Amino acid sequence: MDRRSRTPLSPIRFLERSAGVWRDRVAIGFEGTSTTYERLFERVERVAAGLRAAGVEEGDRVATLLPNVPAMLELHFAVPGAGAVLVPMNTRLSATEHAYILGHSGATCVVADREMRDHLDTASTHLARPPRIVYVGDSSEYERLATDSGRLPLVTPDEDALLSINYTSGTTGKPKGAMYTHRGAYLQALGVIAEAGLDTSSAYLWSLPMFHCNGWAYTWAVTAMGARHECLGGFNAAEVWRLLKDSGITHLCAAPTVLTMLAEAPEAVPLKRPVRVFVGGSPPSPSLLARARELRLRITHLYGLTETYGPLAVCAWRPSWEEDSPAEQARLQARQGVGTIVTEPIRVVDSDMRDIAADGVSIGEIVMRGNNVTSGYYRDPVATERAFSGGWFHSGDLAVMHPDGYVELRDRLKDIIISGGENISTIEVEQALVAHAAVIEAAVIGVADERWGEVPKAFVTVRDGSTVDLTELLDFVGQRLARFKVPKEIEFVTELPKTATGKVQKFVLRAAALGTPESQP
Amino acid sequence: MDRRSRTPLSPIRFLERSAGVWRDRVAIGFEGTSTTYERLFERVERVAAGLRAAGVEEGDRVATLLPNVPAMLELHFAVPGAGAVLVPMNTRLSATEHAYILGHSGATCVVADREMRDHLDTASTHLARPPRIVYVGDSSEYERLATDSGRLPLVTPDEDALLSINYTSGTTGKPKGAMYTHRGAYLQALGVIAEAGLDTSSAYLWSLPMFHCNGWAYTWAVTAMGARHECLGGFNAAEVWRLLKDSGITHLCAAPTVLTMLAEAPEAVPLKRPVRVFVGGSPPSPSLLARARELRLRITHLYGLTETYGPLAVCAWRPSWEEDSPAEQARLQARQGVGTIVTEPIRVVDSDMRDIAADGVSIGEIVMRGNNVTSGYYRDPVATERAFSGGWFHSGDLAVMHPDGYVELRDRLKDIIISGGENISTIEVEQALVAHAAVIEAAVIGVADERWGEVPKAFVTVRDGSTVDLTELLDFVGQRLARFKVPKEIEFVTELPKTATGKVQKFVLRAAALGTPESQP
What we know:
The first copy, chain A, is of the alpha/beta class. Chain A has a nine-stranded mixed beta sheet with strand order 2-1-10-9-11-12-13-14-15, with helices on both faces. In chain A, strands 4-3-5-6 form a four-stranded parallel beta sheet. In chain A, strand 20 (417-419) and strand 21 (422-424) form a beta hairpin. In chain A, helix 1 (12-21) runs parallel beside helix 9. At the A-B interface, helix 1, helix 7 and strand 15 of A face helix 1, helix 7 and strand 15 of B.
């Protein structure tokens, strides 16, 4: 077949197009100022030139340590546009973790927030060859870099070339660098546009950090449509509500934790126009869904991993669900769902890679492949081979496949509890707990038991002003779960230990449980 | 770069996904009946199996001669799903033209409407090896083919493999077969979804023939979103209005001629909910735009060619246009516009492939390239090389580039009139004529003139019940055009000669003008 008309797929093209077509539209709103697409494009070409002048060569890795400021968006085009590879680091990690990622990726340059200066100084002491650090802010080095070196025409890369390396949160072991290609990012962005219904009049609020899977590809998708990025220097529920009420926001993404903060904020009032909210990281609880509905936040639940360019599955709303009770709807919306339109069918398989029965009961591991799945871990062929055994990426997530083809998570492979020979999904037990109106969050782990091998133990946080006692909660859960799944212990805590990405650190809870085996609520 | 996660782009994937996710949603509405996505998928697998059983092998060409019936949509998946190549023929061509296309493509099978029987018998007499003909209809051979051979799991082709060959209308010379790949079709469909704002609740009315560039990729795009295809056995303005009023239609596509028929139909009334209408083939006239607005048909003007998977440019509405007068808006909306989000930048070049100035005045030829441009003409390397000279596809369309980056057609390369050394755009003269309320359509050609070399001559059709005399019309046009552009002759006709695709056949007008040089209105 003649490949005459084959041009490479790259999200850089989206910016180039919007810089022409939507030149006078607002690309970025930030702290009351705005930047047009024409200006954004100029900035990107200038930053690309500045990076080159600062010694960044094609193929180099350029890391970021930035909140959702305009520079972070610029770098999503300027770094690949200079032929380099973006390494967006989570600002909430420790200096040791940053040092590890900088060392492992071999980043030659870091663009960072000034507030990270002490932090980066510490990280640099761990590195044999510390990267050049460019700080962002008024009259900063970044601004000089964006003005002093003219403009660089953005490169047109091979579509299979590396665009970004996104490190996993590493709840266990070292973070691994999931590699994203230009092709994968381009297709994922087109998938986001279709699933989120983005159009030119959309305004996207940057509540989700761009360092999470390149902001779930909204960095590129919003740009492609010539829509508005509303950037945020930091997350502040009051400020977010102000923007939701006054700034024409149409879309935002968030982890349930962040959404809970929004829903519980004193500023929360039902919006005049509904806003589409995409939630991922863990399933939204029934009470959160109910509250969001009151506020006119139209929730869609997504599922994905750092290794899958962020969400690659969507709990697509089925018309037949309209007739279900709110409780049943909430249960259905908590499913991880189905692959998006650019996603290969998601499978749930047994240890021999055979598809488990789609009966809503049989449990297997979720495996994926396709253009929006990482091409592997950077500089880690062993971990890559292991993750891709059988040719599919192994998520480590255990799930059932419902008869309607929707996937529902049961547990992390390493979190499942085996009690008296029965599998207990910690997620199922957690969902039963958070169904109680007084409970905000719950985490369940397995603890050793002489008779059953393992039994479930729960840690719960309770809503301010609410009270619930142990007996009442056990009774509540006992009406929803088989007896063997009901926690043998429930511990009321003020906060759950979490990773920098907001995931509950069950290993911390397990260590705590081991250290104080007699602890009773 | 590791290509582990590279899976082929193909629109077949869209149907497979919708068959799972949207299994119980209506895929096709047709004459009051409906078909779910699950059922459509089963039908497609059955037709694919039936084609194989009928002797169709991988790589074979399967032609169609069908209106917008469900079978035509099925074949858009079943033919490539069987590993074969689709050749959708225009039902309005002559038997000789069909014979040429069947012979040139080497189609081994034709799926056809029963009403084409006599016609195909004639065509077959021209062919050394007539293809097998499968007729569609109740208890037809097609239905047997769809039931007797079980189901064929659809093939996963290489993304650069040939999916469809779409023959040009061939106003001059023989039709040429523009080749479409799976990759191109997949990306074009994603572009349609983004530009048209298709979502799962959309309902697309099949007023545009699917044999035109595979229905401008809506065959695949609507399917991808799990939206509804409303099929039509034939075009009937009354029936279309009934569906627009009662059937929840959200989108349709049409040539201006068809849209004019709709807008002038006695059934036309302002719709309760606006419908998005995509118009291509030629620019909509100001009076048509005004009438469409009254009817709540929200028009977007598109531009493309058989060689570009249908429309690859869109006259994207600019917010600043809101403040312009209706007349100015109509003028702006008649532009061909800018490439869609999956399109490489469109260029307007001189004969040395240098970009002309973006001044709205300088004229050059539109050239394109990229994934939604044909990979070449089937079995015609000479025409392919000529069309792609300089590495870009040459449209044969002359245009200006406006300072805002929007392209506007001035003429077909072969239609431009050179009068006293000045270029006269026949399109510009035609637009000046149709701006008159009494004029429906106008076509302008150059006729020989001793003094000026060439001068413009116009053919116009007049609205029923309206009257306009020559002097009045010349006066009207004289206020809008430079003196040398005003037609020296205007002929009032009842109908303009058109190709099967609805394009005015200027060569017929030129022949007529030569045959009757003294004709005066």
